[in-house]
Amino acid sequence: MKIKYITIEREYGSGGTEIAEKVAEKCGIPCYGAEIMEKAAEKLHISVEEAQRYEEKITSSFLYSMFVMGQVQSGNINSLPMESKLYVEEHNAICSFAKKGRGVFVGHCASEALKEESGVLRVFIRACSDFKRDRVVSEYGIPEKDADVTCRRFDKKRSTYYTFNTSKKWDDAANYDMVLDSSTLGIDGCVDAIAALMGQA
Hints:
Blueprint: E1 5-10, H1 16-27, E2 31-32, H2 34-44, H3 48-56, H4 62-73, H5 82-98, E3 103-106, H6 110-113, E4 120-126, H7 129-138, H8 147-166, E5 178-181, H9 182-197
C-alpha cells in the first residue's frame, strides 16, 4: 500500500506531536495538529480557547454519542450542541487539508475523518509512566508533583473525545496499523519506523 496520510493518536507526554513533526520534516510533507482546531474554530466564529473548552465538555455517554452520530449522518448539523459542531468542522478541516496532498495528522480522530481514503497509516504512540512524567516536567514545565495526574487527565480527555466521536476505544491496538512505544524506541526511533514506511528510511 502506498501511504499518503499518517494519522497519529498519542498518550500525553509520549512525544507524539514531536514525532509527527519530525516525520513530516523528514518526508517533506505538511504536519497538521493545532491547525485543525484553528480552522474549525474560525469556521464556527469562536476562539481556539473556546473550542478547547467545548472539547472538555464532551460526555462519555454512549447513547448520547449514538444520537449525535445519527444527527451528523442525517445532515442535521444545526441541531447539534457546539462541542459536536466542533468535531464536524474538525472533520471537514482534516478532509480539506488532505485534498492538498500527503500529510501527517495529529489527534482530532483524523483516521475516522479519512476512513474512506486509501493509503492511510494509523499510528498510536504510547510510553511508560516514568518517560511521560519526565517529559511533561522537562518539556512542558509541569511541576513534578502534578505530572502523573496531568497525564491521566489529558489521556482521559483524549479517550473520551475519541470514543464519543468514533464509538471505538482510543487505546485499542486493533484500531491502529502501528503501535509504537517511545519510551523503548526513543523519539527518533519512532520517527525512523514511520518514515521507513513512507520510503524515507
